[in-house]
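Appendix B. Chain record.
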Amino acid sequence: MAGRAARAARAAALVGGVLGAWCATSCAPSGFAVQSTVDSVRILASSADTPYTTPGATVSLQVLAIDGRKSQPAPMSVYWLPFVCEDPPGDAYYACFQELLQAADGGAGADGGAGGGAGTGALGQLKPGVDLTPFLPSGPTYQFTMPADAVSAHSTITGQTPYGLAILFNIACAGHLELVPFDPSNDNPQQVPLGCFDASHTQLGPDDYVLGFTRVYAYAPSDLPANTNPTIGSIDLAGKTMSVTPATGAAYVSPGFTSTPCDPNSSQSCQDVPIGPVVPASSQESYTLPGTGATNEEIWASFYTNLGSFSDEARLLYDATAGLVGDPSVTDAKWTPPTEAGDGFIWIVVHDNRGGASWATIPVHVQ
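Structure tokens predicted for this chain:
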């Protein structure tokens, strides 16, 4: 009982950390009341094919962006800033914003992206009110080159293996992007210099826009730790195995399932559906923490849907000490069908605590 209680406490603490980490890596103009309910423009996850890499290497990124709005007067698009923010002060993503606007032409990473786009200096020369989207790469994937001096330019931290950091920004917007000038009277260092605007140049709110970013770490070849994204082997659906088919990069697509509407007045026809990822043990990698020695990754799953609801927003799959928490009957979350028929999706994102992520998209039919 004591071991089970300890694991439960660690799981509860991790879930709190998961939600905090999500807010730190997909910053939006305001928070979401229920993280698992997708009813607006959302960035649910992003990943790099190599979360840890070497200077000069090409890295492929992917983002899971969803338009969950019931009304969509304008389509959502995903844009990437063609700019590698290298080794920002304190490794803080918001320290990149001023550099983005002030960097000179030909700055680090200005031409490192796939699909063309303007250099950093070109963005810096544009003024508020100008549509930036013609200058930006678009789509769910992007490539960049890790700067050659990423490790040597980063400040040394005592007791840690020397490393570098690259931060890439992605934006989901149901409109177009424009620069937003900094407010000199606002002391908040996290002022975002970009906004999403409609055709009349009216700035849109948090339901229509989200800014996210992806961190990728660099190490010298001799110091590069092994670090891969977790693998989703299959999806468990109430004890039955649903196969997954790898799609582009880290994304997986499941064939989906059919359910019946939930009648809140009848317990017989309102059945929760247990669902969750099956992640092989090989996904839990070992690594070394400075001063403490070897440890194992923690791996958890986050659950999202635009149809029905989830009882849990995240579930721990692998504990750093205990390993696998349990079989799917322990780690699955419970999905509750909606009260009316409809079609939608469930998204399951599997994370590890070293920046790895993979996801499954599961069609749901309620009839």
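Further analysis of this model is presented in Appendix C.
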